[in-house]
Design a protein that fits this description.
By secondary structure, this protein is an alpha/beta fold. The chain has ten helices and six strands. The protein has one domain: HUPs (Rossmann fold), CATH 3.40.50.620. The protein has a six-stranded mixed beta sheet, with helices on both faces. The protein is globular.
Length: 276
């Protein structure tokens, strides 16, 4: 406030007021990051994540980010990429991995806890019977839908109780395309997941930093990083409607590899004048 006594403030970015020592530390972190990630593939993965995060303004200084873990490669890759990014980003944010245990026998919450402990990250687990409930005889026709809905509700409640203003989920480009066709074919409307979505009057924002990454890239990244392999105990694994859509799209991609890029591009370029 004292600076106002001397006239108008100069038009410069706030970052320029950082002490030189802090800037030097930041540059050293960035240098170490670049040295540690020399491969072109790793750089491309981080570049795709950065592009999505910047384009949709996903994170801000001081954010508390709950990271939804499922035990699969996608959520583990998401957690790793956000943790690495935090080391050199010009903003500071907290990461809080959370796992909603669906209650199936043979769970893997202990593996996830060990994975998070090794990285110095707090791990939260909520044990539920969502999976058992969703697979009762009366729910067989919509088991996956019900289970996903209950899991999402539990994640929202965790964010509210833990004071997290962001919820990061590991959905990638293939998930977004598949959801579009699922809604088109089975729900009768045109919609899909979005990279960033504000809910509850701004109290929570759901972000998907992997939105611009192909599933194949995440598989390669996860393999290179040697993430723990958690076998999915769900009895519906591999035989859901999403798997049917995935199989159909895989056949299409095999015949015309450029189709995936065109579909994803079309989701960002909708000509509403040519819809009913």
């Amino acid at each position: 406030m004292r600076l106002l006594l001397f006239g108008k403030l100069p038009q410069v970015k706030l970052q320029s007021y950082r002490p030189k020592k802090q800037n030097s530390v930041r540059r050293n972190k960035l240098y170490r990051f670049r040295v540690a990630h020399r491969s072109r593939f790793i750089k491309n993965v981080h570049r795709a994540v950065s592009r999505a995060m910047h384009q949709y303004d996903m994170l801000a200084d001081g954010d508390r980010v709950a990271v939804g873990l499922s035990g699969g490669k996608d959520s583990l890759a998401l957690l790793d990429l956000l943790a690495v990014r935090r080391e050199y980003a010009p903003i500071d944010y907290q990461l809080e991995p959370v796992y909603i245990d669906p209650g199936f026998p043979g769970g893997f919450s202990d593996q996830l806890k060990a994975h998070c402990d090794a990285r110095g990250l707090p791990f939260h687990v909520h044990r539920t019977d969502h999976g058992i409930l969703a697979h009762r005889p009366e729910n067989q026709a919509s088991a996956c839908f019900l289970c996903a809905r209950l899991r999402r509700k539990a994640l929202f409640e965790h964010c509210r109780d833990a004071g997290c203003n962001k919820l990061a989920l590991g959905h990638h480009k293939d998930d977004i395309i598949e959801t579009f066709f699922l809604n088109l074919c089975y729900a009768g409307h045109i919609s899909t997941m979005v990279p960033s979505q504000t809910l509850f009057d701004g109290a929570l924002t759901v972000i998907r930093p992997l939105a611009f990454l192909d599933e194949s890239a995440i598989e390669t990244y996860s393999r290179q990083q040697a993430f723990p392999i958690c076998e999915n105990p769900c009895p519906s694994a591999g035989r859901s409607k999403r798997q049917e859509i995935k199989a159909l799209l895989s056949e299409l991609y095999a015949k015309s590899p450029h189709v995936k890029g065109n579909i994803f591009h079309s989701l960002q370029h909708v000509r509403s004048d040519y819809l009913l």
